[in-house]
Amino acid sequence: MKISKQNPHWQVVAASVCGTSHIKNKQLCQDAHHWQLLPGNVLVAAAADGAGSASLGKVGAMVAVETAIESLSLKDITRDSLADDETVQLLLTESLLAAKKAVEDEAAACQQQPQDLATTLIIAIASPEMVAATQIGDGMAVAKDHLGNLLALTIPNNGEYINETTFLTSPGALDTAQMRLWRETIVNVGLLTDGLQMLALNMVVGEPHKPFFFPLFDFVKNAEDQAEAKEQLVKFLSSERITQRTDDDLTLIIGAFNHL
C-alpha cells in the first residue's frame, strides 16, 4: 500500500520475528504487536513478549496486545481529551486492566492457569502534541521530539536478577507498572521487546541509543510503501548484524509523524 504524503499523518512500520534460538528449537515466536490509527492523528500501539517458560506465552502476548488496542479504540479519544493528564493515565490503566482480564479469561477458557499465558506488555498513545506509555515487564518505549531529543518513556524492569521480569499475570503486576507522559511536539515513537534492548539501550547511562533509533526513524519517515517497508524491517531484524548480538524473539514498532 502506497503511503499518502498529502496531509500530516503517522507512518508506522512494525514487525515481530522469531529469534534464532527459537528457530533452532522449532519453537514459535512468543512476541506479538498490534497498532491502530484513530481519528485526529492519534496512534495507539502495543507490544508484548510471552514468557518462554509459559506453555501458552504466545497466546497470552497476542491476547494482551489485541485487547489493549481494542480497549483504546473503543474509547472516544480525541486530541482535546488527551490534553488532560488524568484522562491519559486512566486510558492507559484501563487498557492494562482489560488486557489482564482478557488473558485471565483466555486461560480459564483453555483450562490453564493465568501464569501459563504469562506475558509482558507495553502500551503507548501518541498524538502530534504528546506521547504516553505504560509498561509491565521488560522492553522499552521511546519518543523523539522536533528538537531531536530522545526520551525513554519506559525502561526494562528486570527485577533483582538478570532475565527475571514481571508479567501481566504476576501477583501485584499492576502495582509495578511504569507510566510516563511527555508533552512536546512529537516526531517519532518506538516500542520494542526485550530481545532488542541490549542494542537499543545504552546500559551505562540507562538512555536510549541514538545510533540505533535515528536511522530507523528516518527509514520509516521516508517509507513509500508500507508492505515493502515491513519486509525491509523483517530483513533488518533477521540480519546477522542483529542476530549476532541476540538470539531472542524481536518486536519493533516505529512511528514517524510527518508534520509537513
From TrEMBL:
A Pfam family the protein falls into: PP2C_2
Protein's UniProt name: Protein phosphatase 2C domain-containing protein
All copies of domain PPM-type phosphatase, residue ranges: 18-238
Lineage top rank: taxon: Bacteria
